[in-house]
Amino acid sequence: QVCPRLRTPRLPVWLCSVTGRHGVLFGTDSRLLSDWKTERFFHLYFYNGQQEQTKAAHLTIDTHSHHWEEDQSEDPSSPGKRRPSVEMTIRTKWAGATVSWNGTDPFF
Questions:
Q1: Which pLDDT tens digit goes with each residue over 60-69?
Q2: Bridge partners (DSSP) listed for residue 15
Q3: Which letter, b or e, does each residue of 26-48 get, where b requires 16 or more Cβ atoms within 10 Å of its Cβ?
Q4: 61: three-class secondary structure by DSSP
Q5: Which of 13, 20, 46, 56 has the fewest CB atoms lying closer than 10 Å?
């Protein structure tokens, strides 16, 4: 028997497999589960438990960013356009969102 709180979590949490490594993407704002307006600008944390990651990465997500302001002349496959796998995973739920790593070096 599964506890009702496991079926309906109080906080948003996603188990992810990013480039073959498992991790947890979670938020601390319960309104993200019930109020679509909070999906405009919010914070998530990512932790994969690997030795090189000593604490959860604090990410700021902006789903209404101006992605069209990016330099369109740059080749999307160039190193400057390469996006971390965690960002691409987040964009499977929030297409076009921008992700700020808040001082943490993005990991691929």
A1: 999 987 655 5
A2: 24
A3: bbeeeebeeeeeeeeebebebeb
A4: strand
A5: 20
Sheet containing 57-62: which strands, arranged edge to edge?
A: 13-18, 21-26, 41-47, 57-62, 98-100
β-pair partners for 60: 43, 100
Written as six digits, the tokens of 18 are 């990013």
CA 99 to chain centre: 7
The residue ranges of DSSP E strands in 1-108, in sequence order, are: 13-18, 21-26, 41-47, 57-62, 98-100
Q: How far is CA 32 from the centre of its chain?
A: 13
CA distance 58 to 26: 10
